[in-house]
Specification:
single chain, elongated, 6-stranded antiparallel sheet, alpha+beta, 38% strand
């Protein structure tokens, strides 16, 4: 009988003994080795932060460019100041649809914008009532500025004292001045009992090419007659 192994020594595993008894070679399986890392390779946690760092730098650069662009943008220029507007043409306004004759001393119309207050466009004479004898709502002159301008003020030099004068603009956009009726024009400023130089401020400046200076009440001429006149028209705007 074989002797028992010395105390303190482990017996050989049965399958090892069997393998040795048959002369088979036995190769122990090595324990698993942790995944090798390339030299200098950053830990996974550090690698995951790189996109955030790059994105942050890009955002800083973009903000810097935006700020530089805003700082280098030229300051807005001053608003254009209102001033005298050139008058291209003046035409008398006396529509037949309103009870007029179709013309109110048309040859004199240009005298209202010739720069000379001694030359005057005058209305016809009307009897009994200062409101043009009750025959029609008014009469006047259409000023053509040559192009659409922003009108903020109109000054009218009148003959006599006691005229009611309105500044009107077309009710709708148009390529030509509406000449068929006063109903096609909207009042934007009014002066009553005016005489001499009357200043009419347009509270809300109007973009228009045409301006109607409309007389609705005339000063007394004497002997029961009434007659108005315009010596000069000055339009202010931009």
């Amino acid at each position: 009988a074989s002797a028992d192994p010395p105390d303190g020594l482990d017996e050989t595993e049965p399958f090892v003994d069997a393998a040795l008894s048959h002369g088979d070679s036995f190769t122990p399986v090595p324990p698993p080795v942790s995944e090798a890392k390339s030299p200098g390779e950053a830990p996974a946690a550090k690698r995951s932060n790189r996109p955030f760092i790059v994105g942050g730098l890009a955002l800083v650069v973009a903000v810097g460019i935006l700020v530089a662009t805003l700082l280098n943008r030229p300051a807005p220029g001053p608003a254009t100041a209102a001033g005298p507007l050139a008058v291209a043409q003046v035409t008398d306004f006396d529509p037949k649809a309103d009870g007029g004759s179709g013309g109110e001393n048309p040859k004199q119309a240009k005298l209202a914008a010739d720069g000379d207050t001694k030359t005057v466009w005058r209305t016809e004479r009307y009897r009994r009532l200062p409101t043009l004898g009750g025959l029609k709502p008014g009469v006047g002159l259409v000023v053509d500025l040559g192009a659409v301008r922003r009108v903020s003020r109109v000054e009218v030099t009148l003959s006599g004292k006691g005229t009611t004068v309105e500044v009107r603009v077309p009710r709708s956009a148009t390529d030509a001045a509406p000449m068929k009726s006063e109903a096609d024009w909207s009042p934007v400023a009014t002066a009553t009992e005016a005489g001499g130089r009357a200043a009419l401020d347009v509270s809300q400046p109007q973009d228009t090419r045409y301006v109607l200076i409309y007389l609705t009440s005339l000063p007394p001429l004497g002997a029961g007659y009434f007659r108005g006149g315009i010596a000069e028209i000055a339009v202010t705007g931009t």
